[in-house]
Amino acid sequence: MAQTPTLQEVLDVVEDLWPAALAEPWDAVGPVVGRRDSAVGTIHFAVDPVSEVVEEACAAGADLLITHHPLLLRGVTTVEAGTFKGEVVHRLIESGCALLTAHTNGDSAVGGVNDVLSEILGLQDAEPLHPAAEGLAEEGLGRIGTLPRGTTLGEFAATVFGILPAVAGGVRVAGDRDGFVQRVALCGGAGDSLLSAAREAEADVYITADLRHHPASEAREAVRGRRPYLIDVSHFASEWLWLPAAAQTLDRALADRGYDVEIAVSGINTDPWDFFVVGGP
Amino acid sequence: MAQTPTLQEVLDVVEDLWPAALAEPWDAVGPVVGRRDSAVGTIHFAVDPVSEVVEEACAAGADLLITHHPLLLRGVTTVEAGTFKGEVVHRLIESGCALLTAHTNGDSAVGGVNDVLSEILGLQDAEPLHPAAEGLAEEGLGRIGTLPRGTTLGEFAATVFGILPAVAGGVRVAGDRDGFVQRVALCGGAGDSLLSAAREAEADVYITADLRHHPASEAREAVRGRRPYLIDVSHFASEWLWLPAAAQTLDRALADRGYDVEIAVSGINTDPWDFFVVGGP
Amino acid sequence: MAQTPTLQEVLDVVEDLWPAALAEPWDAVGPVVGRRDSAVGTIHFAVDPVSEVVEEACAAGADLLITHHPLLLRGVTTVEAGTFKGEVVHRLIESGCALLTAHTNGDSAVGGVNDVLSEILGLQDAEPLHPAAEGLAEEGLGRIGTLPRGTTLGEFAATVFGILPAVAGGVRVAGDRDGFVQRVALCGGAGDSLLSAAREAEADVYITADLRHHPASEAREAVRGRRPYLIDVSHFASEWLWLPAAAQTLDRALADRGYDVEIAVSGINTDPWDFFVVGGP
Amino acid sequence: MAQTPTLQEVLDVVEDLWPAALAEPWDAVGPVVGRRDSAVGTIHFAVDPVSEVVEEACAAGADLLITHHPLLLRGVTTVEAGTFKGEVVHRLIESGCALLTAHTNGDSAVGGVNDVLSEILGLQDAEPLHPAAEGLAEEGLGRIGTLPRGTTLGEFAATVFGILPAVAGGVRVAGDRDGFVQRVALCGGAGDSLLSAAREAEADVYITADLRHHPASEAREAVRGRRPYLIDVSHFASEWLWLPAAAQTLDRALADRGYDVEIAVSGINTDPWDFFVVGGP
Amino acid sequence: MAQTPTLQEVLDVVEDLWPAALAEPWDAVGPVVGRRDSAVGTIHFAVDPVSEVVEEACAAGADLLITHHPLLLRGVTTVEAGTFKGEVVHRLIESGCALLTAHTNGDSAVGGVNDVLSEILGLQDAEPLHPAAEGLAEEGLGRIGTLPRGTTLGEFAATVFGILPAVAGGVRVAGDRDGFVQRVALCGGAGDSLLSAAREAEADVYITADLRHHPASEAREAVRGRRPYLIDVSHFASEWLWLPAAAQTLDRALADRGYDVEIAVSGINTDPWDFFVVGGP
Amino acid sequence: MAQTPTLQEVLDVVEDLWPAALAEPWDAVGPVVGRRDSAVGTIHFAVDPVSEVVEEACAAGADLLITHHPLLLRGVTTVEAGTFKGEVVHRLIESGCALLTAHTNGDSAVGGVNDVLSEILGLQDAEPLHPAAEGLAEEGLGRIGTLPRGTTLGEFAATVFGILPAVAGGVRVAGDRDGFVQRVALCGGAGDSLLSAAREAEADVYITADLRHHPASEAREAVRGRRPYLIDVSHFASEWLWLPAAAQTLDRALADRGYDVEIAVSGINTDPWDFFVVGGP
After folding, report:
1. Mean pLDDT in chain E?
2. Residue of chain B whose alpha carbon sits nearest to that of A73
């Protein structure tokens, strides 16, 4: 008969799926709040450990909140509740809800953020844009692969828009609307550090988030109107896509070990933007 | 009778209007290409020294291109034309067109980017968000001021959208559409470094560009749904507004010294984004 | 009628007594755990926020634990309970007990650690060994003053031993047992950074803690057997002396504002040493 | 017939015994004072190159003083006799006595400080706590090994006290006096950098010197009252034990090469502490 | 029939002769000015990209100037013509003359500066003083080899003087005029970083340029009047010797690929010194 | 009746003449070897503390050697006699001869190296090129002044050559032999750091030593053949000129305090170059 695992037992399964060794050196992944011997009957997945999400998880009686983004990426010397991060720590501990981060390890792993994006878009022969220093050949940041059939940039951008969860604002595109695209590079979340990797991989188009004026402008000037084109999407939306897949993967892995855990994915939009004003595309 | 000035004579006038001493320590402002004794009969203003803009200026026979953004912010050890920056250097020198940068000095100065934004929005009693280390009390980065009459965030965002030149994508807003706003902070271009200054200045809303997920999310969490709200606009659009004002100011200052120069403002949209896909606001 | 203050109201009083601005730049003082609007009816003072102390405070129902040493001097990216610091955070939040650090601000302030040591030893005309960069002339690290009557080093060391709370190990002395001492320098806690200041202040003897072989040896060689002699005491013991005085001072300051709070001083010895083996002095 | 070696010939033998390549990168080992062609008929061993030791060696007519601690660990730009290090340089050169340092190379080498401590305590299967980056598997900092028969922490601390030369102060112990110990980690001199290595090696007890409040307290909290226990001894005493063994080893190595040298070990206690005051263990 | 190559085609040949990978990490080699698709019918070689040399090349209608020294070793944020480097950039672009640097790659390569010096002096079995980190055993900085017949330092210095192009000032020599020399170390240009390498290689004499008082004095003191002696030559002169050889090598390599290019070597003395005053040797 | 001073008493007088506070932050001035209570009956002055000079001083029975250049500018961790600096330390201590450095304090002070050069050349209204951060207006590095009558660069270079002590090699000059010079900048020793200061001070000619190819070439290019011209002299020769003046000044200052000391100036040429080969000026 299925058992309720401890936090430690869940951590062991998570380490198998999204090994901490795949995280970037500057990252801070793993457990952030919680006791390793506490029982974990329900798990909540979300992108951001913000107040509204924490409130949702605690209200739902979750024992563990797994987020993509770290709460404490830069070290803190206080967790008093006057800061929003301290407030989150207090709320979680008072509710007996643990917090776990799967960030760049969740990006790089097989079945991680980038693999999920790649699969939803139907890329073939996808491989990492920046292979992991240590790890399998399939692991690393970003992905580059090929669409089964080429299309126009305009059509492809509409496809990208269509697969993403709705947020305020849309998908910005740099390039010729009628340009042909088939070779696709992508990086969920902020991927400006891979702009030149996408160019060197001879991508027709590069999908990522949080592109600012100067990196985008310099990347476009570097190719002088040619490829790769750029598609800038919501940071949140590009990473949210991973949550249902991650929940399902974890669910199976726990079941395989004889554990019975209820897993939910947060439906809260934590993109910081609430609405937008636009004249028309 | 009016005379055609040399580049050196134009530089002297520019130094009066937007003194190099107002530039941030990391910035690189002043002349980038050109001979100081060449005659400057026509001046072209633009935000970005990108190929299309340079082409436009050279094709129009401009003797001087003044841009807000530096071509060579980070030092280069080559200007060969295989790099886009080297190509720009070649094109300009071959066409006899000089290049001049007025960047953070143009932001901070009286009558600079932020003052123009502030005036177009009708702010009263505006003062710098981050006063210049050296300089007048009216000089510095960003501005904070008060609308003559309070309004809702939704109305105000529509106003902001309306004053900006059209680019692909719109204006993203974080906050309550019906929330009251009257005290406005702003910073043309990328202003995430002033997010806490806007909060400390007790702004109801902060307008800037290039806000990425994490700074925006953390800024919103820090106030837990309350003010300042955020309005994220196009980096290019927010700075383009300065160009007509700057052109007019320079025109008058040159005329005051008896110089006759033809001044034009580039109409090219150098926002890197060509189109966008959106479902609706 | 006396009222129970909130944590914020206690923080305001603490800031008056031991201002955060007096802390060294590398230090991390102020609130570490707790909600600012929670009621503080009982306060517990201790030197170290270690498990046993936290247990004592929580068991006693304390609402606030004030310690001299910071729990999180170096920033942490996790507070999960598998680390001892995370365990402390969990225990405190689960018990509703806040935590506050008064460290180098508590050393430097008037009435702080060094002043208390100085008074108990009866030093006259005491002043800081290293005056605070900003603050009153009476504030700063360490103290230097004069005994009303000179004595021998041996006698004085016995006096020092006598005033300190009992810990495992005694008081180590470098110098001539019969040497005359009257001018006394001291620094509660680890004070090797002030060894040369004590020499330059022409102290006959310098009392501090945590002196290692090389600093002590070099300091003695520098004076070639002459003064200042050195007295090395327990780090914990030298700082514990401050607790009763600090408790009393805070009690009065709270009462002056009409607050009624119960204050206790921990009796737990957090010197890390449990026993010692010795042949005889 | 046996010959008197030159300093260079002694240096060659020393390099075989305690190779300079075993020294830590920050260390400064090898000859410090002396002429390589001078005859070395008598050698003096000591822990510290302090005035009293140098005086003893010179008075005894030693041609070479070998110390564990470097005189000039941090580079000096003067050796004028007004500084104690300059005074030592003058005294040595005036007396024709060379000075040689065998520091972390003497710690790490086979037969070095840690091996001697390990042997005197009767540890079996001892190996380095932190193996040397380059060198044999038996070389490195610290040692970890097993007592033939387990004992209590109290008994073992008494044993440790008993084997060390007498200094002012005793042996401080953190842990349960009746706790069982058999697996022993040790590091002569200041060994706080190996505290976590001792824990990871699953030592029951770790013996070292110069443990300050915070490292000791944090190390004890990390194991929450369990093992490794800590035994803090005199820095000088822990390293002095090496001297007779080192003298004997060097004596044999010189004799093997047909050299006749008289070797003495300093009896001066250079622990900086002259006496201590204690109420009782 | 022979063809005129493009700049890109010349760059490909240069990369074969003097690979960029041989350059030191701090160096900046490769193309500096020019368009890769421009035709290169005439090439000019020189040591320094100074105004007079650039004037000569442009006046001669050169399409490419290859210099040993980089124009922009430290990155620049402007090339306006008010700086001499900017003036050179303008002059070259206006004349359609490209600029290419072959600096430490030209020193280290087979057939580079040091090999040419070595051959002209008739050294046998020459090998690098400081082998390249990556590359062939024959590649690296400086050379060490043997004269077929030993001679006196005085005679050898006269030979060195005789092979160098005439500049203001002569050849300075440290050492015994009658001392025997046969093993010769050399480094074209400023070679003080190889002074100890020359000593360790047991050279009788080391030839280099730009030796200042302190490095030369310390190098001579280190050997206390013995070898290696030092010969200090003109930086320019020592590197100029490479130009005819480099021109010839490039000419052949281009011809081998079926290209027809006219190659000239600048005769301008760019040693900064115009004349000198001397009493007699 | 006149007395023989101690080293300490000589140090006091030296501090008055050439205060240590005038030394550059990177410099190491003051006593290097010796006992402060030893008698100083004879003092020897020299530029460099090299073996031959030290031998001369010791052979002459000097009690104190004062040199311009520091023996230990970079800190040393050994003074064993196998290094030349260690050999010098041994020789001096064995001979009872102290060593004192007056380096950049001797450059900057009134009556220092630069003032002496300036006076010998007859400059009027001379003032520092780089005024000392703290000190009198007359103190600082380099000097700039005016010749009573202008002359040609060729004539002036001959004058400079004529006043310097004879060394191997002559005086190198960059500029027009017939160019007019009247405003003269100078810096004894290596003065490339003041090249731009000389230009900004509008000197006609700048005299200094140790100019390497690149600084000299760039300085000449920056003025494009115009002034300041450059005169490169021997580092040693330019500083030796100070010795007789310094000896006389110290002699008087000691006599003023009633001390009787014999002072000599070394006649050894410590320019590292022994001879030179030249075809003719």
Report:
1. 96
2. B214
Strand bridging mode D205-209 / D229-233: parallel
Give the E-state strand segments of chain D in sequence order. Answer: 30-33, 42-46, 64-67, 98-101, 124-131, 140-152, 171-174, 180-190, 205-209, 229-233, 262-265, 275-277
| pLDDT score recorded for residue A1 | 63
List the strands of the sheet with E30-33, edge to edge: E30-33, E98-101, E64-67, E42-46, E262-265
ipTM over 0.85: yes
Dist. CA B193–CA B201, nearest whole Å = 14
pLDDT grade for C1, boundaries at 50, 70 and 90: low
Candidates B173, A6, A94; CA nearest to C93 is A94
Q: From residue D167, give the alpha-carbon distance in Å to each of D34, D57, D214.
A: 32, 21, 24
Q: CA nearest E231: which of E207, E200, E256?
A: E207
Specify the 3-state DSSP secondary structure of F75.
coil
CA distance B169 to chain E (A): 32
Closest CA relative to residue E130, chosen from E144, E110, E146, E112: E144
Section F60-89 average pLDDT: 97
Which residue out of E55, E240, E274 would a mutagenesis test of the F interface target, given it has the greatest number of F Cβ atoms within 10 Å?
E274
Rounded mean pLDDT, C136-165: 96
Reported as a single tens digit per residue, the pLDDT across D48-63 is 999 999 999 999 999 9
The SS3 of residue A35 is coil
What are φ and ψ of residue B69, in 5° steps? Answer: -90, 140
* Digit-coded pLDDT (tens) for B35-45: 999 999 999 99
Please say if the pLDDT value at position B280 is more than 60.
Answer: no
Phi-psi label, residue D210: left if phi above 0, alpha if psi -120 to 50, beta otherwise: left
**CA-to-CA separations, A246 to A144, A236, A249, A264, in angstroms, rounded:** 21, 15, 5, 11
Q: What's the CA gap between C191 and C204, in Å, rounded?
A: 16
Pairing state between β C229-233 and C171-174: antiparallel
Determine if residue F191 is left, alpha or beta; phi over 0 gives left, psi from -120 to 50 gives alpha, anything else beta.
alpha
Cβ count near B245 (within 10 Å): 19
Q: What CA–CA distance (Å, rounded) separates B185 from B208?
A: 9
**Interface touch D160/C279, C-beta < 8 Å:** no
pLDDT tier for residue D135 given thresholds of 50, 70 and 90 = confident
Residue-wise pLDDT tens digits, C48-77 = 999 999 999 999 999 999 999 999 999 999
Taking CB atoms and an 8 Å cutoff, what residues of chain C touch A35?
80-82, 90
Residue F191 CB: number of other CB atoms within 10 A? Answer: 28
H-helix or E-strand spanning residue F66: strand F64-67
Encoded amino acid at F276, one letter: F
Rounded Cα distance, E67 and A53, in Å: 63
Q: Under a CB-based contact definition with an 8 Å cutoff, are residues A197 and A129 in contact?
A: yes
Token duo for residue A151: 């299309």
pLDDT surpassing 60 at residue A178 = yes
Q: Are C172 and D168 in contact (CB under 8 A)?
A: yes
* Residue that the structure tokens 């004192």 belong to: F100
For A86, which residue in chain B has the nearest alpha carbon?
B222
- Tens digit of each residue's pLDDT (9 = 90 or more) over D185-212: 999 999 999 999 999 999 999 999 999 9
How far is the C-alpha of A179 from the C-alpha of C33, rounded, in Å? Answer: 56
* Under 8 Å between Cβ of D87 and D81: yes
Interface test mutation site (partner F, options D85, D93, D99, D104, max chain F beta carbons within 10 A):
D93
Q: What is the DSSP letter of E34?
A: S
CB of C224 less than 8 A from some CB of D: yes
Predicted confidence at residue D281, as pLDDT, reads 42
